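Action item from last meeting closed. Structure (310 res):
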């Protein structure tokens, strides 16, 4: 009798032990099952699982048997704007006069600080600014949008001077330009006027590339305006419109997406342009060239030889 009592007690204790272990392990097993199920469907808690990784961009591959190109300019930078991939750089931090590349920064400040709908008068003083590009006449009034097109496409110094007057003077606009340059991260850039007539307007290929990226991301209409060959504009106080022609020599290239040139005796030939290349958008910055068009062609030929698209 005592033997059967002992056996019964052992069986009862074993049953209680099994029940207790299932209660303890159950939540752990359920949690593991949930994790396995989450991995199988690809998303758990909003994060991609190993079954559905974020594919890395396929970057071009450098062919190291192709030597670096011969450069005649003072500074060069060729960089993908989509993958932030650097194709080539030379003297990218060298200070250099901006010339009319300044007008890209002026356009950004006018759009953001003045507004494209504002009416901008053209004074006799503005028309008297060095250069006749744009064909402006004293007494005309333009929407800022149209005056920007004139400034960028014809590189009109008169238009830049009209914006300076509207902003409160050359120094007032220069302050806005320098503040914007600092905001963009153009740490090596100093600007004294809105046209680029001042050789004291200094930047670098690296800083100009930052400006081009900013334009592409936040003010893409600047590229839209500068990529076309001709455009109609009309003064707000005149019923007669006028056709303006883009003086950028690269505007006829089918892969040209917009940009700006700048020229002065000290700066020589500058260029800041965006091109469609390798199924993406590539910024080309050239400062201090003696022949920027030829240099662009030779640099792109080199990139095609030196890199393999994946």
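Sequence:
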């Amino acid at each position: 009798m005592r033997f059967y009592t002992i056996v019964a007690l052992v069986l009862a204790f074993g049953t209680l032990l099994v029940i207790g272990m299932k209660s303890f392990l159950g939540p752990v097993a359920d949690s593991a099952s949930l994790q396995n199920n989450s991995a199988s469907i690809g998303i758990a808690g909003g994060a991609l699982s190993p079954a559905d990784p974020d594919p890395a961009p396929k970057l071009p591959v450098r062919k190291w048997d192709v030597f670096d190109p011969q450069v005649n300019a003072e500074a060069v930078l060729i960089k993908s704007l989509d993958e932030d991939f650097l194709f080539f750089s030379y003297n990218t931090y060298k200070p250099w006069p901006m010339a009319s590349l300044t007008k890209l920064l002026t356009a950004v400040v006018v759009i953001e600080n003045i507004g494209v709908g504002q009416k901008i008068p053209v004074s006799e003083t503005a028309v008297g600014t060095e250069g006749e590009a744009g064909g402006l006449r004293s007494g005309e009034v333009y929407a800022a949008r149209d005056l920007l097109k004139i400034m960028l496409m014809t590189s009109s110094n008169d238009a830049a001077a009209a914006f300076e007057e509207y902003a409160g003077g050359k120094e007032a606009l220069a302050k806005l330009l320098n503040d914007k340059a600092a905001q963009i991260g153009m740490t090596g850039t100093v600007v004294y006027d809105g046209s680029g007539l001042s050789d004291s307007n200094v930047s670098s290929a690296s800083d100009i590339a930052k400006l081009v990226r900013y334009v592409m991301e936040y003010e893409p209409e600047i590229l839209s305006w500068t990529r076309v060959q001709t455009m109609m504009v009309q003064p707000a106080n005149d019923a007669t419109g006028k056709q303006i022609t883009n003086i950028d020599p690269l505007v006829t290239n089918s892969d040209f997406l917009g940009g700006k040139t700048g020229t002065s005796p000290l700066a020589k030939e500058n260029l800041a342009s965006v091109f469609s290349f390798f199924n993406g958008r590539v910024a080309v910055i050239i400062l201090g060239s003696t022949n920027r068009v030829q240099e662009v062609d030779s640099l792109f030929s080199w990139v095609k030889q030196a890199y393999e698209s994946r």
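Note appended to the action item: Residues 2-41 form the longest helix (40 residues).
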